[in-house]
Design a protein that fits this description.
Strand content: 15-25%
Largest sheet: 6 strands, mixed
Strand order of the largest sheet: 1-2-3-5-6-8
Shape: globular
Number of strands: 8
Number of helices: 5
Helix content: 25-40%
Length: 170
């Protein structure tokens, strides 16, 4: 029997797994298509690692800002370089998370935030599949968390118009 004290030992994916849904052919086909799509996007250069949403945010940012992405996805503090200096890219697509980590503004000059179609941070009056917001490191410094050395924000910075919008639908 699971109780509050033993729940932390159960893998996260099992805590939320639904045993009410059988794995039927439609589910199996959808999972197969998901992984086929991942492989295709890797071949096309959209995904460069196994961090798919981060890679997607970097790809969209590169499209708009001609960023030269860093060769390694493991260097701290930035994801690439554009004409204004070091750039950090963040992607938010969560329907439940109400904030986004902004990285360390001492390690980059500009931050690009890509809000996906389902992001809870989106301004509902702005249309588009992917909304891209650009902030200077100085602006990010305003979002320092009290008593911590971290930076994050909620919806406030995304109330206005994005810097760029990417639409896939005609």
């Amino acid at each position: 029997m699971l109780n509050f004290h033993s729940l932390h030992r159960v893998p996260l994916f099992l805590r939320y797994a639904s045993t009410d849904q059988p794995m039927n052919n439609e589910t199996k086909q959808a999972i197969s298509q998901f992984f086929e799509s991942i492989e295709k996007l890797k071949q096309l250069g959209v995904f460069r690692s196994d961090k798919y949403l981060g890679d997607l945010g970097e790809y969209i940012s590169q499209y708009f800002y001609n960023i030269e992405l860093a060769k390694s996805g493991r260097q701290p503090g930035y994801d690439g370089i554009d004409s204004e200096g070091l750039v950090q890219v963040k992607y938010h697509g969560s329907t439940t998370r109400t904030n986004i980590d902004l990285g360390n503004p001492n390690e980059y000059q500009n931050l690009l935030i890509v809000l996906g179609p389902n992001s809870l941070l989106r301004n509902s009056s702005v249309e588009g599949d992917f909304l891209v917001y650009r902030m200077s490191a100085e602006t990010v410094c305003q979002f320092k968390n009290k008593n911590k050395e971290t930076y994050s924000c909620g919806k406030e910075p995304f109330a206005g118009e994005p810097s760029n919008v990417l639409n896939f639908k005609a």
